[in-house]
Amino acid sequence: xxxxxxxxxxxxxxxxxxxxxxxxxxxxxxxxxxxxxxxxxxxxxxxxxxxxxxxxxxxxxxxxxxxxxxxxxxxxxxxxxxxxxxxxxxxxxxxxxxxxxxxxxxx
Length: 107
What we know:
Layout: E1 4-7, H1 9-25, H2 28-44, E2 66-71, E3 74-81, E4 84-92, H3 97-105
Parallel strand pairs: 1-4
Antiparallel strand pairs: 2-3, 3-4
Helix pairs in contact: 1-2
């Protein structure tokens, strides 16, 4: 079965913000390398879509359709539907993930 990764607008915005933050606080080169690495991690899901796990913040709510993988310290939150892997968020794991996921996924 072939899967296709689709990065939704919110996750694209996350990637853009991460890139800008790293470019400003480190270097443009580091920001490019990180962006490449994060995208590569996302697209690896085409081969191994079920390798992620349910984010611990969502377990108590019983929501099982979202999974996450890591590219430390970043957490990539996604969902699989009809052979499409929807990347919903790319978040810095040092932030308050509970709050962000509540805002984005549980509304």
